[in-house]
Specification:
With about 110 residues, the protein is mainly alpha-helical. It is built from four helices and three strands; from the N terminus they run E-H-H-E-E-H-H. The protein has a domain of about 60 residues: Recoverin, domain 1, CATH 1.10.238. A three-stranded antiparallel β-sheet has the order 1-3-2. It starts with about 30 loop residues before the first strand and ends in a 10-residue tail after the last helix.
Length: about 110
């Protein structure tokens, strides 16, 4: 039986993975695919809100990586956050507060 290298990052959480960098003089993180919990943590939004914003085109769309798994491009999510911040600074509430379907109360 062959030796298996168990030091890979397979199965590690997003926080445990090392940051990848380019070979340029100023290292910068490469774009990576992030999972929903990371998207929720970065944005402070809930799962339903993420999917509603995605449906109306106000949030970056996820990428299907398998039949049952989706990921988001980290750069797109960070750009969306920066866009929201810039809209807030410019008092453009129509961009930062899109019309979402109203919740039905039971």
């Amino acid at each position: 039986m062959s030796n298996i290298n168990r030091s890979s990052n397979f199965g590690a959480t997003d926080k445990e993975r090392p940051s990848l960098t380019t070979t340029n003089s100023a290292p910068r993180p490469l774009d990576r695919l992030i999972r929903l919990p990371t998207v929720l943590e970065l944005t402070g939004l809930g799962k339903t809100t993420i999917y509603q914003l995605q449906k109306i085109g106000s949030f970056p769309h996820s990428i299907s990586v398998t039949k049952f798994a989706v990921r988001w491009m980290e750069s797109e999510v960070l750009a969306w956050i920066a866009e929201q911040s810039n809209a807030r600074k410019a008092n453009q509430s129509d961009i930062s507060d899109p019309e979402l379907p109203k919740r039905k109360c039971a």
